[in-house]
Amino acid sequence: MRHLKSIFDFYIKSSLHLSICVATLLMITFLRLDQEPDLLILFCSFCASIVVYNFIKYASTLPYYFFVKNISIKKIQILSFMSGFFLLVTIFFLKFETILTGFFIFLICVIYVIPVKRTKKNIRNYSRVKLFIVAFCWSSASVFLPISDQSSFFNINTITLFFQRFFFVIVYSIPFEIRDLKYDSKMLKTIPQVYGLKKTKCFSYVLIMLFLLISPLINPFNYIFITSDIITAILLFYIIYITQINQNKYFASFWVEGLPVLWLTIIFLLKFIF
After folding, report:
1. Could you tell me if 97 and 146 are in contact, meaning their C-beta atoms sit under 8 angstroms apart?
2. Average pLDDT of 217-228?
């Protein structure tokens, strides 16, 4: 049982779970825009998520990251280096437009983490910005990477889908923001710190309504996707409703984070039924 728990903890801490969820959001975009899923893009997004998120979580906070003796961190390092290697090998098989889009998103992630010389702070240390930068990166990657080689890269459908995904990711991230109230510096001024638990939840409910209102604009008369969005919105509403500062260890990091996988499963089930 202990071995299973250590494997599960590694799965969470190494960003494997998170990276599957990122790739899942890309898959939802392929289906939503009626595109043939590109396995190479999905694989590259999975590997890139492991590299970027592990760097943000560990390398940016540990001065001697590459020389650390902690066994669990070393395992995460090995996974990150392997993912980076596979990413470098496969990225050159992608189309130029996809690489360019991915590089732009990667650049934002780097700016998000690297400190500014004068202040020695990075963007995520500035008040109320962190959540929106994260939402922008997730939304850009999950919406624009799957269609980056299409001639109709920017159109009403993709822009509308981007905003719907943007609202989703903000609400999706709120349970993590609430959980981190106990650990975040008060200087960060996150949304829950500034507005409190009740107002943060009300803000989330408004965004869930916007998420729902946008849905029919993306695929009018496509009842499978509209229904899947309604079910996902209900799940989001329930998650926000039950979220508290004192959470179970895996509430946000596994159950909430796994929502995109459930969203995709709902779409497949509805396609199978109808």
Report:
1. no
2. 91
Residue 119 has pLDDT above 80, yes or no: no
Coil/strand/helix, residue 6 = helix
Query: Hey, what are 55's tokens?
Result: 């760097």
Measured CA to CA in angstroms, residue 235 lies from 28, 161, 185 at distances of: 17, 19, 30
Residue with structure tokens 């499963």?
Answer: 265
Query: In angstroms, rounded to a whole number, what is the distance separating the alpha carbons of residues 54 and 73?
Result: 10
Tokens at residue 215, please?
């849905």
Q: CA 271, CA 28: separation in Å to the nearest integer?
A: 13
Which tokens belong to 149?
A: 């080689």
Tokens matching residue 256: 């909430």
Mean pLDDT of 241-262: 95
Between 118 and 223, name the one with better pLDDT: 223
Alpha carbon 269 to chain centroid, angstroms: 23
HEC profile of 207-233: HHHHHHHHHHHHCCCCHHHHHHHHHHH
* Tokens 């159950």 sit on residue: 255
Does the structure show a pLDDT above 60 at 117?
Answer: no
Report how far residue 208's alpha carbon sits from residue 252's, in angstroms, rounded to the nearest whole number. Answer: 18
The amino acid at residue 53 is Y
Q: What is the pTM of this model?
A: 0.92
Q: Does residue 81 contact residue 87 with C-beta atoms inside 8 Å?
A: no
Domain positions in the chain are 2-273
Instruction: Write the burial class of residue 11 (CB in 10 Å: 0-12 exposed, 13-18 middle, 19+ buried).
Output: middle
